[in-house]
Amino acid sequence: MKEWTIENWKQQQEQNGLVAFYLYTPMCGTCAVASKMMDVIENLLPDLPLGKANINFLENLAMDYQIESVPCLLISENGNVEKLYAFQSVPFLYDKLKKVVD
Q1: pLDDT band at 98, cuts 50/70/90?
Q2: What's the whole-model pTM score?
Q3: Backbone torsion region of residue 53, taken as left when φ is above 0, otherwise alpha when ψ lies between -120 and 50, otherwise beta
C-alpha cells in the first residue's frame, strides 16, 4: 500500500466509485496485525484503490471523519464513507470489500 495524503484520498474518491483508506499509528500493536491483513487484501483485490496513512500526520482528516481509534478503515463508496474499526479477519475484510467491488 502506498502512503496517501488527504489530497490523494480526495482525488481517489473523485476518480473511483470505491476507495479504501487504512489509518494507523506506528506504535499500535493492533495496527501491526491490521497492516498485515491489509497487505493480504491488497493482493486479493489489486484493482481496489487502497492507501494508508499514519493518522498522527492527518489531524484534519481525523477531525473531519471523527476517527475514534486506530486501526480504522475508511471505505468510500460513491462518496458515502463508512468507518470500520473491527477488522475481525482477512475473510471478513475481503467479503466486505469484494461485495462492494462486484
Answers
A1: confident
A2: 0.94
A3: beta
